[in-house]
Amino acid sequence: MGRMERRQQQKQQQKQKSSGRIGTLWRSRGLMFKITTATAALIACMFLVFNIAVLASDVSKLEDPAPQPTIIYDQNGKIASTIAASDIKGVGLNEIPKNVIHAVIATEDQRFYKHHGINYVGIARAFFENVKSGEVVAGGSTITQQLAKNVFLTQDRTYTRKLKELVLTKKIERTYSKDEIIVRYLNQIYFGEGAWGIERAAETYFGKSAKDLTLSESAILAGLIKAPSVLSPVKNFEKSMERRNVVLSLMQKEGYITQSEVNQAKAQKIVLKSKKATDDYDGKYPHYVDHIIEEASEKYGLNANEILAGGYSIYTELNPTMQEATEKTYANNRLFPNSPSDQLVQSSAVFVNPSTGGIQALIGGRGEHTFRQFNRATQLKRQPGSSMKPLAVYTPALENGYDIFDELQDRPLNISGYTPLNYDKRFRGEVSMYQAVIESYNVPAVWLLQKIGLEKGLDSVRSFGIPLEKEDETPAIALGGMHEGTSPLKMAQAFAAFANNGVMVEAHAIKEIKNADGETIGKWKKKSKRIMDAVTAQKITYMLKGVVQEGTGRKAAISGRDIAGKTGTTQLPIQGLDGAKDHWFVGYTPEIAGAVWLGYDKTDASHYLSSSSGSTSAVIFKEIISKSQSVLPDKTFDLSLLGSKYKKKNQSVQVEQEEKQETEKQETEDKAQEQEEKQQEKEEEKQEKEEQKQEKEEQKQEQKQEKENEKQNEKQNEEQKQDSGTQQGNNGNSNTTGNTGNTTGNTGNTTGNTGNTTGNTGNTTGNTGNTTGNTGNTTGNTGNTTGNTGKPTQEQQPQTQEKQQNQESTQSQATQ
């Protein structure tokens, strides 16, 4: 083939290739056009359907909501409580400060005034987060979407619910202005402490109307929307202030306020005037109902507005007898330590059924209850102290070959600077595991954890359903040393596994939820897992039963009833003070498991516990169980898998216990007798002092009487001396008169007058003598007699001088 022919052939091939490419391109463009057209048609259809759905949506509920009460049923299917929506005090736009609106928008929806109800940027961001995590974890909701969700929908995170939310959001945006939307949102949102709506929130936290809120106060309330219970300034002032500062920064970023205004707001002194919002439901068991609302929201996607106004029927695990017993116990202040006037010693308790996981009773705190307040039984996180030992140490140790009566070291221990001590700061060389458990020795527990390996202890704690942080991965976990801690509900759920032969069932309060039409919208599905084998569970029960029989938990013991449990006390983190921050008792019977916590919300040098957990939380546990015995079968623990070896040991322990009890009884009797003798001695000493006192009084009286008698005698002697002088004078006069004889009758008269001066008798005689005084001798004798007769005595007093003169004058006249 020639060169020319080859060139022509190549040109022909190139033409064919070029034509093929053009054809392919033409065909691909046609396909793209078809795809584009189909996509546009689909989008148009979707847009049309979406708009039809929007037009068909009814949002009139925003105008006049008609709430229906929700009914709570107990475990027997009887009505336990009814709850309804709280009283919302609505306010208009002119009564809401601009700072409140700007704070909420800056925090919840920065583009509120720019979008038409849907923030597509936020939705896209949330979509990628959901794809990345493999589930729906973010929503990107605007304020309008939140309003639609709170009023019309549930809280569940599904794409179906999200689509409904978008439809309702567009309807709301087309029906109401932006100002009307923000006002309705602020009037319906929950701010915590029982306050619904901005007006109630202003009254509840600051004792004022919403229109009078300052910038700082507005930022605080806006910050509450995210988590009202956790961020409440009443419960967590510091966290609330941190959240306020975040809101102020966002307001500045959005251009609503200046840096100077931010500084002024941060410097403002916050004064909380807790004017409590009315707790509008009058039903029983408010603490339990609070938890039901939380659980319905977390597990079944219902929001608070729905529960309070949706007319639901909620069937629960509530045991009314036990709940009432718990509430009565917590109403008895004598069972709790005395509190200073500025802060109440707080406490919480929760009890679950080991085989079903059903929460039988719950109380979230002491003092006045506020609707949906902070629940210390479920939301509190505190270090559990020694009550962690069975979970972190003794369960994994038994699972790894150790046994109940194995010897553990109790000697000084130093693990990279960590030096645990026993509560009495003594070391005993070696103790059995049983003795270490019942006496709650710390050093043997830490030593044993080191022997089996820290990771095994940590894995055991996690298997019991207690979350751990990186900071918790230290040997101190053996003694409950945790960065944040855990809740009473988590501890009760964990210990319930011991009572259930090693199987832990997830704790829950709700069994079933039905809507107003009677349709079931949520139902409990049992979730359980085996934590340890049954033998290990029974060995733990064997030891924890000993804690109550003869150890640190003796005050939880009830005669004739099997109880096992563990005390827990956490160290006071203040140098120089001897006390505790937290008291725990976590225990169980064959039918019920429970946890009791006690402490201050804010622990400081003036607010801490001075006694031990055995004398507080254990007593509270005992009181609740005692009051609930009518609904708790009197069963004994099943320890059948332990064998005769432990029974013999147990018998030996019982003998020792009886001997110990007998010794204690004898000591008590001896002390009582000694006390009685001391009391008798005191009484005798007191009586002797009284007699001595009386004798002294009598002596004083005698001395006084003697002095008075001496004075009287002196007086009588003085008078006798005076009378003697008078008598001698009278006798002299009489003799003179006698000697004179009848010579002068006047002398006899004078003698009669002299006799008269010494007494009435003398006067009478004198007169007689004067009358018969014709004979001098007779008159003289009579005068002499008069003088003798006229001797004065104590009863006879001398007459006055005036009377004597009158008598003398009369006598003279008679004589004349």
User: How does the major sheet shape up?
Assistant: 5 strands, mixed
Structure class: alpha+beta
What's the shape? extended
Spatial strand sequence of the major β-sheet: 2-1-3-9-10
List low-confidence stretches: 277-281, 729-816
Tally the helices: what do you get?
26
Mean pLDDT: 81
Strand content: 5-15%
Q: State the end-to-end CA separation.
A: 221 Å
Considering DSSP H and I runs of 4 or more, what fraction of the residues is helical?
40-55%
Gyration radius from CA atoms, angstroms: 52 Å
What would your notes on this structure say?
The chain contains 26 helices and 14 strands. It has 816 residues and is of the alpha+beta class. 52% of the residues lie in helices and 9% in strands. α15 packs across α17 (443-452).
Provide the fold topology.
Elements: H1 3-56, E1 70-73, E2 79-83, H2 98-108, H3 120-133, H4 143-152, H5 159-175, H6 178-188, H7 197-206, H8 215-224, H9 228-231, H10 237-253, H11 259-267, H12 286-300, H13 304-309, E3 313-316, H14 320-331, E4 346-352, E5 359-363, H15 389-399, E6 407-410, E7 429-432, H16 433-438, H17 443-452, H18 454-463, H19 488-499, E8 503-505, E9 510-514, E10 520-523, E11 528-530, H20 534-550, E12 564-571, E13 580-588, E14 593-599, H21 617-627, H22 644-740, H23 745-757, H24 760-771, H25 776-789, H26 801-815
Parallel strand pairs: 1-3
Antiparallel strand pairs: 1-2, 3-9, 4-5, 4-14, 6-7, 8-11, 9-10, 12-13, 13-14
Helix pairs in contact: 1-5, 2-8, 2-10, 4-5, 4-6, 8-10, 10-11, 14-21, 15-17, 15-18, 15-20, 22-23, 22-25, 23-24, 23-25, 23-26, 24-25
